[in-house]
């Protein structure tokens, strides 16, 4: 049965409008995992996903992964995880595709040019929340299998899916689920494939590393209730002033992390890595232009990539309880909660980072001699992940990219986090490849997120070809 890639490619091309319509249906579901009020939508998204795979004849399960504990101590069910299986031929390799169908929050008034939940095509780009992160890539993997089925072509490998709905909030409950199913669902899996990241430039890429993330809440509590800043200002220790004071001790203006112990844990950058970075296609000027800033923190490509991918950083995301509405309310907020995260790299350890951050903030807070109360909590502790660049899974990836996209992919890392990648590696021991199809300018987590029709459709073809290539990969690294 010779592999008929041309027929599969033709099939994908002629069904592209249907693929776009399915993406439209998926984007219309506001599956925001960070907002508990949207939990019904998220559950609906998991049901739609399961139904799509069931209709294709997959052996599908919606796996209960327990409850999520909210900040007030109440519990709500976590969205079920969708697992599916196509084929169980023991003479074939088995791949397991991981993805997520939850999204980051989005509101039109955040500055979107279009309704974020109404997929809108403009100049070949499909705009909508979750289009690139991660709904189109998940659908592309589903459509890749569907194409083989439609043409009555035998799948070259058994295909499993594990699709979750909590990735954007740290994949709550998934670690435990993987451990529980390690000797059942994962027992016959040879390789895990993840397409939850993007290219670095217009050139296709394969991703061999992700940063981890430690996400913190720092709460400062003072008076019983908010106070008039004229009537009480000058007489009380203000929680917001305390909070801003300690936040300012996390990182300096040059990007140096000031928390003792963090920088010491970072694995040294090797000559080999620097050389690899220098050969990667990446234009600093267009990156800068795209972001809309006057100056970047580093002026050489290798330094910039290193700080994007393999050095830690601190980002301050927001302050709950702070006055942020338009207008000039003159209030002293009684309780404020800062949200910040530290992207982590090898050889940092989230448990150690938790202690380092907590000790540091408590020591800085003590210096202020304030009667207010500080509480520091780490709510996400996701580890970084790195693959062996020489793994034959990547050689298969290079062949598929060359065949479908006519280019040699750049070998890149991802600055973002795929919290479950490291668990897959540590718990299942399976080899992992990250095969991105998102564009460099897709605006993940941002306003006007998009997936280009080109990347969506060519990406589907790439996945079709990869299923063929991966069928020939040796089970042991050679
Ligand atoms: C890279 C991936 N598409 C993604 O966006 N992941 C999130 C996961 C996360 C980490 N902490 C909280 N959520 C990210 O990198 O922000
Ligand atoms: Zn994602
Ligand atoms: Zn994301």
TrEMBL record:
Cofactor binding annotation: Binds 2 manganese ions per subunit.
Annotated Gene3D superfamilies: 3.30.70.360, Zn peptidases
Pfam families from the UniProt entry: M20_dimer, Peptidase_M20
Cofactor requirement: Mn(2+)
Record-annotated active site: 102, 167
Sequence positions that bind Mn(2+) 2: 100, 133, 196
Residues reported to bind Mn(2+) 1: 133, 168, 445
SUPFAM superfamilies named in the record: Zn-dependent exopeptidases (SSF53187)
Annotated site (Important for catalytic activity): 228
Keyword vocabulary terms for this entry: Hydrolase, Manganese, Metal-binding, Metalloprotease, Protease, Signal
Domain Peptidase M20 dimerisation span(s) in chain numbering: 209-367
Coiled-coil residue windows: none
Keyword Signal: yes
GO MF term list: metal ion binding; metallodipeptidase activity
Entry's Gene Ontology BP terms: proteolysis
Source superkingdom: Eukaryota
Keyword Metal-binding: yes
Family per record: Belongs to the peptidase M20A family.
Protein name: Carnosine dipeptidase 1
Originating organism: Lepisosteus oculatus
């Amino acid at each position: 049965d010779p592999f008929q890639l041309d027929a599969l490619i033709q099939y994908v091309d002629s069904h592209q409008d249907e693929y776009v319509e399915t993406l439209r249906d998926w984007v219309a579901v506001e599956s925001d995992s960070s907002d508990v009020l949207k939990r019904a939508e998220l559950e609906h998204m998991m049901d739609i996903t399961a139904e799509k795979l069931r209709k294709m004849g997959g052996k599908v399960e919606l796996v209960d992964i327990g409850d999520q504990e909210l900040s007030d101590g109440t519990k709500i069910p976590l969205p079920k995880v969708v697992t599916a299986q196509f084929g169980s031929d023991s003479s074939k390799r088995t791949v397991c595709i991981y993805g997520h169908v939850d999204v980051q929050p989005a509101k039109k008034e955040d500055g979107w040019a279009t309704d974020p939940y109404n997929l809108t095509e403009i100049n070949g780009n499909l705009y909508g929340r979750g289009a690139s992160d991660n709904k189109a890539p998940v659908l592309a993997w589903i459509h890749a299998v569907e194409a083989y089925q439609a043409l009555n072509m035998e799948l070259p490998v058994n295909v499993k899916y594990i699709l979750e709905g909590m990735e954007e909030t740290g994949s709550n409950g998934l670690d435990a689920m993987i451990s529980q199913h390690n000797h059942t669902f994962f027992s016959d899996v040879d390789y895990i494939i993840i397409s939850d990241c993007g290219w670095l430039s217009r050139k296709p890429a394969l991703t061999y590393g992700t940063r981890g993330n430690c996400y913190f809440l720092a709460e400062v509590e003072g008076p019983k209730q908010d106070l008039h800043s004229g009537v009480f200002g000058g007489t009380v220790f203000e929680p917001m002033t305390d909070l801003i004071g300690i936040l300012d001790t996390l990182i300096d203006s040059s990007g140096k992390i000031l928390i003792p112990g963090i920088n010491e844990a970072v694995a040294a950058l090797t000559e080999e890595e620097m050389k690899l970075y220098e050969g990667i296609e990446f234009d600093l000027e267009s990156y800068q232009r795209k972001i809309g800033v006057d100056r970047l923190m580093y002026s050489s490509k290798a330094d910039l990539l290193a700080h994007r991918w393999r050095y830690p950083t601190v980002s301050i995301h927001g302050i709950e309880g702070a006055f942020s509405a338009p207008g000039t309310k003159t209030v002293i907020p009684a309780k404020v909660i800062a949200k910040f995260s530290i992207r982590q790299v090898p050889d940092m350890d989230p448990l150690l980072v938790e202690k380092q951050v907590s000790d540091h903030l408590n020591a800085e807070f003590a210096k202020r001699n304030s009667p207010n109360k500080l509480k520091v909590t780490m709510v996400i502790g996701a580890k970084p992940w790195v693959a062996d660049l020489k793994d034959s899974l990547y050689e298969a990836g290079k062949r598929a990219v060359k065949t479908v996209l006519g280019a040699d992919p750049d070998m890149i890392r991802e600055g973002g986090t795929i919290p479950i990648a490291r668990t897959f590696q540590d718990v299942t021991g399976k080899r992992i490849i990250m095969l991105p199809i998102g564009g460099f300018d897709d605006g993940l987590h941002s306003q006007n997120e998009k997936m280009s029709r080109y990347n969506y459709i060519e990406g589907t073809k790439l996945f079709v070809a990869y299923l063929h290539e991966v069928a020939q990969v040796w089970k042991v690294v050679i």
